[in-house]
User: Which sequence fits this backbone?
């Protein structure tokens, strides 16, 4: 089977590849049926949610059908007093937020573009935002999952109760699996009460050494920030106001009751060596919060990368990042660094990707190219150097998708 | 899948002698037990209903010795089973079919503590509370604190994905493990995850936590360190009835408060604990709640006032209110010692008891507790309750005399009725103890044939010959194991 001509199909799978057809199931049965039929036709299965990250991962390997999950978008069960919600995977983060808001609750995942991003897509790509420092990662919020495997069966793991150790933890296995084991059809998630109030404090620095000192101080601070973001000037320009134009800016978010937040704002100014440039509270934080949340998938420049390093290595790596080449945003309390390229010189950018990767991998870190022109993917290497456990990822893949039809070519190793 | 595992070949004298020699070479004579009178200690864990003496117990003192032992077992084609402190309550460390038991208790080094990068690297035999002690004064702690933390090992915690009273706010073991090294059943090793977060590839660390030994043996664990709370308040709420206490639990959650812990004890349990420890629990109360909040001192008062009001509005009384800055303050220690020693106290009420571990949605607590009461009346059994109310994780303790076969029969029926009702109410048959051998027959009630087939496929990927922890967690076909005897359990 051949790839369709891009000019004859308008449904992209990412990286310039287009779908042979689109399935848009609106029931679980229809989803199972679609997978069975299309696999029987010899097609690969490419699940799509809000289409916010279609270029993420390797290039689609062989012709296949797009499975648009956005019609599977119902809330299945929301027992607010149990602080859990069970939803179909095609529902957007924004719709979940509106449902939870009615009960004064929220999902603690602040992934980018909530009005487009589906919860299934967020989980498939392990998408996170600044609040992961205070609230954990998507894996920490999921307690149950259902997914449709290549044979059209629904496989479930976990359940709807917050504590449950029966069976293997498929909810964790599916988190970040990029649709390669099956299509996530429904999820049960833990939710939390919304905090009474929030504040954002921006602290400016002219020296990365002082940044390093203050990041270490924040690790043992008597305050409890829920987000610790480090920005270079180009990243600050896209997210903060004119007042914040230091060489480096640490943005701290606090959430709690009013008494606690007020105390933390006072306290942090005493603890840190940097210059507090602005403090915003309540609803006024929204523009900054949204800008920081959405920066990871902002589509400027041609290359976006994500590096994960030891927390203490964040300022070490930051010192080597040229603000003429990259915006730099780090969830610094988690060792996550996100860069977007600012120039079109692909040779320079690619060389810098290799330089950065060779500086993070030897100490156990990793660097993923989240987005780049499809033709550069082979030379730049999307997932970085092979890791010893990938052979086991490949074996797990073979156990659940032996014919390799689920999102082929997109994930690590031969997956 | 291999439906059954070949029985240990130890019966074959020449094979047995060769194996023993090879194991002795791997770990040294001083780290091996093979005399029947020495092995009897290892015939079961906290689940005593099924017993089987392993043919030999080895105690590797390093990962190299562990790998050597597993390779010997692999080459000799004998089944083997890892064991930590043996506090497991579902038979997870039972040597089904005999074979080699690999005790990890001598791999007990804390290899590294790194406060700046918030992790510790430990060997699997490190006792949970040792890590807490090693971290004292640093401002950090390891969050999961099972009631058996004074004895249970971190390797065992990883195998069963242990919880404890503080999981409501802080999560269970899997939420605090960053990476692992797994010794596979053929003696090869793989490292998953790592110190940096979000390593590309599947979350094998998340998959391995809770594997109950069915993938291999964890030889190294990278755990996350959590910040100590700056301060806290622990309240003892006293109620006339269990219903009033459960209404309070719902009220606290509805008010938008996420306590660090929310533990309930019913009257029978209160009396047992009071008799044992004299903490000052009111023996006339229908139920007590231990309610704990933590966070910044500056923010605790509003929640404290709200909790007191919710307790009062549900007909309860806040009998004690402990304001603490560290978890070492005497009154704080005393209240939690009482709670965590609940199972020891039960020994004063009954010669034998069986602790169950079910989960229901938190809002279904009143139903399940009424059901348990009715089950007790119907079968003429005394049932005490102590449980993690905030998580909906119940631990009914069925009291009986194991010398009376009729009581034993009724306890088994009652246990099954309670667990079936947990499933009916949308819950699970285990919140933190695991499936082990005890609850395998419930797996088809919780999971579809497709779910179980996927789990078996994953198990067979890691453990293709089924030689590591055979006959655990997943039903093997051929019907369930008939049980004739409930267990007496020690802790939860």
Assistant:
């Amino acid at each position: 089977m051949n790839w369709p001509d891009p000019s004859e199909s308008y449904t992209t799978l990412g990286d310039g590849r287009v779908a042979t057809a689109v399935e848009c199931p609106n029931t679980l049965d229809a989803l199972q049926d679609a997978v069975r039929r299309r696999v029987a036709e010899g097609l690969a299965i490419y699940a799509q949610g809000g289409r916010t990250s279609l270029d993420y991962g390797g290039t689609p390997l062989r012709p296949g059908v797009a499975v648009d999950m956005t019609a599977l978008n119902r809330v299945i069960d929301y027992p607010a007093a149990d602080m859990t919600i069970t939803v179909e995977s095609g529902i957007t983060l924004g719709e979940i937020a509106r449902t939870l808001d009615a009960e004064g609750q929220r999902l603690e995942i602040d992934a980018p573009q909530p009005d487009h991003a589906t919860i299934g897509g967020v989980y498939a790509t392990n998408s996170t935002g600044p609040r992961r420092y205070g609230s954990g990662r998507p894996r920490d919020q999921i307690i149950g999952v259902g997914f449709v495997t290549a044979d059209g069966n629904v496989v479930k793991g976990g359940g709807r109760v917050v504590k449950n150790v029966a069976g293997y933890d498929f909810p964790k296995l599916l988190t970040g699996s990029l649709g390669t084991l099956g299509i996530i059809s429904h999820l049960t998630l833990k939710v939390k009460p919304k905090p009474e109030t929030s504040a954002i404090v921006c602290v400016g620095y002219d020296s990365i050494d002082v940044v390093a000192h203050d990041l270490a101080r924040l690790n043992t601070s008597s305050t409890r920030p829920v987000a610790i973001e480090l920005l270079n000037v180009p990243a600050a320009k896209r997210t903060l106001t004119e007042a914040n134009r230091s060489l480096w800016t640490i943005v701290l978010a606090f959430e709690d009751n009013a008494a606690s937040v007020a105390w933390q704002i006072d306290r942090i100014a005493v603890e840190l060596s940097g210059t507090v440039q602005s403090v915003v509270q309540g609803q006024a934080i929204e523009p900054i919060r949204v800008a920081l949340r959405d920066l990871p998938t902002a589509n400027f420049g041609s290359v976006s990368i994500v590096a994960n390093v030891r927390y203490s290595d964040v300022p070490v790596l930051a010192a080597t990042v040229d603000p003429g080449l990259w915006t730099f945003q780090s969830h610094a309390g988690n060792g996550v660094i996100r860069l977007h390229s600012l120039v079109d010189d692909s040779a320079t950018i690619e060389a810098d990707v290799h330089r950065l990767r060779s500086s993070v991998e030897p100490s156990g870190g990793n660097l993923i190219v989240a987005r780049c022109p499809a033709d550069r993917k082979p030379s730049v290497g999307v997932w970085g150097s092979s890791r010893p456990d990938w052979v086991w990822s490949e074996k797990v893949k073979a156990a659940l998708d032996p014919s390799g039809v689920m999102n082929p070519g997109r994930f690590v190793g031969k997956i | 899948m291999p439906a059954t595992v070949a029985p240990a070949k130890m019966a074959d004298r020449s094979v047995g002698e060769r194996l023993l020699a090879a194991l002795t070479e791997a770990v040294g004579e001083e780290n091996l037990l093979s005399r029947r009178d020495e092995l009897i200690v290892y015939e079961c864990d906290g689940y005593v209903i099924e017993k089987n003496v392993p043919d030999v117990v080895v105690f590797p003192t390093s990962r190299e010795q562990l790998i050597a032992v597993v390779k010997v077992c692999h080459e000799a084609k004998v089944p083997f089973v890892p064991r930590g402190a043996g506090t497991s309550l579902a038979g997870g460390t039972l040597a089904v079919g005999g074979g080699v038991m690999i005790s990890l208790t001598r791999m007990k080094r804390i290899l590294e503590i790194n406060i700046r990068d918030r992790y510790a690297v430990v060997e699997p035999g490190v006792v949970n509370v040792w890590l807490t002690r090693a971290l004292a004064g640093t401002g950090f702690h390891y969050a999961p604190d099972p009631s058996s933390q004074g004895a249970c090992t971190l390797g065992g915690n990883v195998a069963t994905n242990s919880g404890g009273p503080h999981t409501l706010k802080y999560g269970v073991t899997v939420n605090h493990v960053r990476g692992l090294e797994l010794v596979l059943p053929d003696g090869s090793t793989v490292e998953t995850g790592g110190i940096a977060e979000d390593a590309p590839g599947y979350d094998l660390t998340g998959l391995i936590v809770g594997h109950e030994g069915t993938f291999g043996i964890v030889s190294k664990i990278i755990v996350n360190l959590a910040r100590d709370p700056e301060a806290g308040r622990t309240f003892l709420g006293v109620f006339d009835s269990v219903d009033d206490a459960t209404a309070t639990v719902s009220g606290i959650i509805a008010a938008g408060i996420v306590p660090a812990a929310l533990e309930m004890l019913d009257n029978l349990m209160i009396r047992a604990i009071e008799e044992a420890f004299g903490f000052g629990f009111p023996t006339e109360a229908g139920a007590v709640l231990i309610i704990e909040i933590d966070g910044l001192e500056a923010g605790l008062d509003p929640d404290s006032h709200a909790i007191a009001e919710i307790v009062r509005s549900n007909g309860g009384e806040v009998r004690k209110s402990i304001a603490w800055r560290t978890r070492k303050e005497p009154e704080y220690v005393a209240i939690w010692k009482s709670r965590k020693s609940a199972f020891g106290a039960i020994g004063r009420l009954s010669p034998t008891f069986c602790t169950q571990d079910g989960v229901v949605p938190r809002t279904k607590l009143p139903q399940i507790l009424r059901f348990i009461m009715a089950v007790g009346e119907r079968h003429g059994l005394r049932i005490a309750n102590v449980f993690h109310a905030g998580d909906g994780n119940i631990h009914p303790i069925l009291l009986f005399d194991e010398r009376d076969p009729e009581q034993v029969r009724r306890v088994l029926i009652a246990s099954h009725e309670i667990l079936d009702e947990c499933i009916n109410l949308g819950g699970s048959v285990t919140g933190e103890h695991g499936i082990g051998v005890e609850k395998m027959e419930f797996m088809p009630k919780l999971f579809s044939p497709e779910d179980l087939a996927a789990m078996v496929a994953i198990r067979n990927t890691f453990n293709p010959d089924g030689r590591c922890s055979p006959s655990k967690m997943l039903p093997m076909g051929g019907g369930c194991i008939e049980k004739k005897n409930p267990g007496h359990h020690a802790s939860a």
Remarks:
- The mean pLDDT of chain A is 96.
- Chain A touches chain B through 86 residues (CB under 8 Å).
